From TrEMBL:
InterPro entries: Bact_solute-bd_prot1, SBP. Its main location: other. CDD domains: PBP2_TMBP_like (cd13585). Keywords: Signal, Transport. Residues 1-23 form the signal peptide. GO terms for cellular component: cell envelope. This is Sugar ABC transporter substrate-binding protein.
Length: 454
């Protein structure tokens, strides 16, 4: 079980904390609400400078207020959060993930933020469609203020395309299917090169000694249950759905043929030497660094990482659409982070005021100008696109996918921590060839048992 899963499992088992903030919510005048010091946690270091500027601007507009920003890597983020909640030294405001907020909300760790929407005069029609709704709990209360949105596309090494006689345009209309991989697998095979210079679609290719893999592999928590940047684009474009409804589904579809066949085909790329082994992808060199080192010709990754692929010396990167699937559609996951206030905050009013400010144009424009992510506010999102363009990065593919409706919302459900705990090791076992794809049906049964009494 990964560290994030262990941490959230601990959180799920924790008794409700003695919430010191309960007596501090409400009351006080506006000046008092804007005074004091709070701590805000991020997990993306690339975004920290922009949010530090937002904090500086917020403090200038609210004399007596102090925002301390702390950044933790994603792999350790929730583990550190859990430890801080148990230890009584948790932050006031956190960057939150939609798949995990129900666990925090249902255990009483988050404050509802509906009053922030009213106080800031926020109109969610002005935000990326579908993102604000991700943060409403089953009780109807809002537990996150939307900060950004993201989806997935193909990122390529332009030099490898040229060397293989391909062009960026040749990536636009590729198709995929679980039987033979379609023209998508043909392209991945052609871009794979062994240490003798033989391509993956040529006789004599050695899958055990590969110089360049046609497709990279990202190893991260959620690879079995979510697979946003790994396999979701294949399963979803084959007509698969995560669950019977979203959000708060109670029957997950991990036993469906579309899912099993997708994982089986995806694993076959490892066997054929077109994608690295799971062990290699988990060895400590991340997908971005491996791309930058010239090890991958193509990767599928999220918009939040797009700029990182353009920062490697000697690498000319570009962005192309995902392949279409058996349904004739291309589908990526649409996700979005939000800011949440922990119920243990000793200054809930200032915390809410800060969260509200981060959702406004004043802060989201600062984030937009940094050209790292796409803010949730539509006007700021367009401003971010212009900033990316000015930096020489064409991110239109991500925007086009959302505009075309070629997206599905990220899955949100109760027991998500437990879903991860079941599906992640199950899929890992398949990827390292210790289990067959059919074994995932047993894991799927265990997942649905979690919801039997809901």
């Amino acid at each position: 079980m990964k560290k994030t899963t262990r941490a959230l499992a601990l959180l799920a088992a924790m008794p409700l904390l003695a919430l010191t903030a309960c007596s501090g919510g409400g009351g006080g005048d506006a000046d008092a609400a804007a005074a004091g010091s709070i701590t805000y946690w991020l997990w993306d270091s690339n975004q920290q400078p922009a949010y530090q500027q937002c904090a500086t601007d917020f403090e200038a507009a609210n004399p007596g207020a102090s925002i301390k920003i702390e950044q933790y890597g994603y792999d350790d983020y929730f583990q550190t959060l859990t430890t801080s909640l148990v230890g009584g030294n948790a932050p006031d405001v956190i960057t939150n993930h939609p798949s995990f907020f129900p666990q925090l909300a249902s255990t009483g760790q988050l404050l509802a933020l509906d009053d922030v929407v009213e106080s800031e005069g926020i109109n969610f029609d002005d935000y990326q469609a579908g993102i604000p709704e991700l943060w409403v709990g089953e009780d109807g209360d809002r537990y996150g203020m939307p900060k950004d949105w993201d989806t997935v596309a193909t990122i390529y090494n332009a030099a490898y395309l040229t060397e293989g006689g391909l062009t960026p345009e040749s990536l636009v209309n590729l198709d995929w299917n679980p039987e033979d991989g379609g023209t998508w697998e043909d392209t991945i095979a052609h871009l794979s090169i062994d240490k003798n210079g033989v391509r993956g679609d040529e006789a004599g290719y050695d899958p055990q000694n590969v110089e360049v893999y046609g497709l990279g592999l990202k190893s991260k928590s959620g690879i079995g249950a979510f697979g946003q940047t790994q396999w979701s684009m294949y399963a979803l474009s084959a007509g698969w759905e995560y669950s019977d409804k979203n959000p708060f589904g109670t029957e997950f579809n991990y036993a469906d043929d579309e899912y099993i066949d997708t994982i089986a085909w995806w694993r076959s790329l490892i066997e054929k030497g077109y994608m690295p082994s799971y062990q290699a992808a988990s060895s400590g060199v991340g997908i971005k660094d491996a791309f930058g080192a010239g090890s991958y010709a193509l990767v599928t990754d999220g918009s939040w990482n797009a700029r990182s692929y353009y920062g490697f010396e000697g690498i000319d990167a570009g962005i192309a659409p995902l392949p279409t699937g058996p349904t004739g559609e291309r589908v990526g996951v649409l996700n979005g982070l939000a800011d949440s206030v922990l119920a243990s905050s000793e200054n809930p009013e200032l915390s809410k005021k800060w969260v509200g400010y981060m959702s406004t144009e004043a802060c989201q424009n600062v984030v937009a100008d940094a050209a790292v992510v796409f803010p949730a506010l539509n006007s700021s999102s367009e401003r971010a696109r212009e900033a990316f363009t000015a930096a020489g990065i064409d991110v239109s593919v991500y925007f086009d996918a959302v505009a075309a409706g070629s997206v599905e919302l990220a899955p949100i459900a109760n027991h998500w921590v437990d879903v991860l705990a079941i599906m992640e090791p199950a899929v890992e076992s398949v990827l390292i060839f210790e289990a067959e794809p059919e074994s995932l049906k047993e894991a799927a049964t265990d997942v649905n048992k979690l919801f039997a009494n809901d």
